[in-house]
Design goal:
The chain is mainly alpha-helical. The protein has helices at 7-18, 25-29, 32-52, 55-78, 84-97, 100-103, 111-124, 144-157, 165-185, 188-208, 213-237, 247-262. It folds into three domains: 7-96, Helix Hairpins (Orthogonal Bundle), CATH 1.10.287.1080; 133-211, Orthogonal Bundle (Helix Hairpins), CATH 1.10.287.1080; 215-262. The chain contains twelve helices and no strands.
Amino acid sequence: MNLPERPIDRLLEIMRRLRAPDGCPWDREQTLDSLKRYLVEECYEELDAVDSGDRARIREELGDVLLQVVFQSQICAEAGEFTFEDVAATIAEKLVRRHPHVFGEVKVTGSEDVVRNWEAIKRTEGGPEKPKSAVDGIPKSLPALQKADQVQSRAARVGFDWDETQQVVAKLDEEIAELKEALVSGDADHVREEIGDVLFTVVNLTRFVKCSAEEALHRTTAKFIRRFREVERLSQVQGRSLGDCTLAELDALWDEAKRSEAR
């Protein structure tokens, strides 16, 4: 079949062909619901590519994310609801509307003004219905740490926030003390609640020091994986399995793994 020369037009035509009556059976069976998992997976693969720093890999993974947008748009186009062009037009209009300091006469002094204006404009969109909450519109399926960060950031933009980092640290100390009391009580529900409070406060602290809680935990988890693999390697060198080691021996292997990482 003849395909358009422009890459985006070619991609759109390929998807139309795949979804045609004589196209691909698997592609034709897909629905918006069935594609949700693939969209999430592709986004995470793109994040991994960014972390790798491999530009060729980033380009490929961005293409996979774009495919999901094209795929869902085609399904909706077949239902007579909207097209990929409508999707592009909608986001283009939104970008212009929410950047009046670029496409209009609004003056800003920095990125904080931009974010404040963005949120104010966002709350006015959708008609004259009753005012929306500052914490509305946060995706329910966001990972918990990211959701906590967004909730706190939204609240902070309307003035509901701590004044300084030490106040957050004091709150963290308070929450840890309450968690210790809950652990002594043996009440599982209470323990779970206090753990949640500690995590929520830790996210607040990372926000104050301008650090992503999600990224910080990701890095620490990656560090643990590296060191644990080294512990496994060291135990194999000794001809032993981890299950045969005492806790003290495992701690010694862990310290050796840390030292080897530092070298």
